[in-house]
Amino acid sequence: MLGQIRIVMIHTTHPGNIGGVARAMQNMGLTDLCLVAPKRFPDPEADARASGATDLLASAKVVETLDEALDGCHLVVGTSARDRHIPWPVITPRQMASVACDLQPGKRMAILFGREDRGLTNDELHRCHHHVHIPTNPDFSSLNVAAAVQVIAYELRIASLESEPGLLPQWGTAWDIDLADARETELLFEHLEKTLVGVEFLDPDNPRQLMTRLRRLFLRAVPDRVEVNVMRGFLSAIDKVLARNPRMKGEEKNDV
Amino acid sequence: MLGQIRIVMIHTTHPGNIGGVARAMQNMGLTDLCLVAPKRFPDPEADARASGATDLLASAKVVETLDEALDGCHLVVGTSARDRHIPWPVITPRQMASVACDLQPGKRMAILFGREDRGLTNDELHRCHHHVHIPTNPDFSSLNVAAAVQVIAYELRIASLESEPGLLPQWGTAWDIDLADARETELLFEHLEKTLVGVEFLDPDNPRQLMTRLRRLFLRAVPDRVEVNVMRGFLSAIDKVLARNPRMKGEEKNDV
Hints:
The structure is a homodimer.
Chain A (H helix, E strand, L loop, with lengths): L4 E6 L4 H14 L3 E5 L7 H7 L3 H5 L2 E3 L2 H4 L5 E5 L10 E2 L1 H9 L7 E5 L8 H4 L4 E3 L12 H18 L19 H17 L11 H12 L3 H19 L13
Parallel strand pairs in A: 1-2, 1-6, 2-3, 4-6, 4-7, 5-7
Helix pairs in contact in A: 1-2, 1-7, 5-7, 8-10
């Protein structure tokens, strides 16, 4: 889907923003950048802000008119910061991303970004099927154009990733260790309870909720096998100290 | 919810990025910015890139250590670009935003952003309950720090707009105890390490990944205040046993 998206920057004034847009696009896997009558391009400032996305910048298509920029595009979305005199269908970046996922193969969607100072003109906005609005803080709504492209491109990338079958492993990351099974975990709690009594932190005659709280703590983390072994090893080390140490009764107990 | 979020920038080199972050934050309605030992701040470049978000920039707290930055925070999330030697629970920006929506009233979440060149150190990442990863293009994954904050702040804003004012409690259930804050949790780890050495389970000359694995285990559970106190009490009980027991050197160490 990302290959069906064209980012169109119209009458951009600062070449640094073009570079920032190129970097944001490449970060998110977009490749098709079209510049309508940029004030200064190519420009060293653009290369600097692109910081590595220079191929994308070099492949950017520079045209004179919006018509040329929309050549071969089937769906046109305009980014709009402010309310318009004539209301237009406004979608969120996330809705726009799901629209992009519905693009038929071979169809292209153009997303228009306007001038740094005034955004898109009404004529330009009236070329659009949808307007997309990034819900910024009403008291401070002016988004830098590269930041706006960053947000739009991010939503497109997330939608394209979610549309693929993706199995998230445990805790959202590839884990290094097998999960402990229920038996291993129970043996840990048995050992823990024994040692808690050994160090006289747990009073068998007055256990209160101690083991329950410790169970809740450890189980919430869903320990893996090495973590259980580490805890067992810690407990065994405590047991060793206890083994060479006479139990002293009647010490004051720690309060829970 | 947005008022419960603190953005923490660690050892930022370029003041322009601090300004860009301030602008991104204010665009999305975040207000709490903390800078850990920035290289140059305040700086005209920061003011320029902030373009209007100067109040937020002026109110940014500058501290020397991460501990100070995490003062009063209960949930710590680190932004991480690359895979770690020991995997950590990784969530997406959207999952992070829903975690933020689950914050109980008065609880604060810190989101850590690292150096422009090297990101966060392992020590810094090991202070985090979660790592958040922005799924960038694997072939071009280096996100500008202001762009990363833009994406994270955008997801937070969207989630806050979508979420009811009725706050979901931690872990999707009404909890009985306050979350431990970052300082209380760190004191637990300091105590744990000391006691692990005391019982000769942790060899200071060969610590291996022991503390890292234990941090990962406990932080994954996001301990509450009583759970931390229970663990501290357990450790104190072990310390008492050790206090009346002569250390015996040269025992075989448990393997991890």
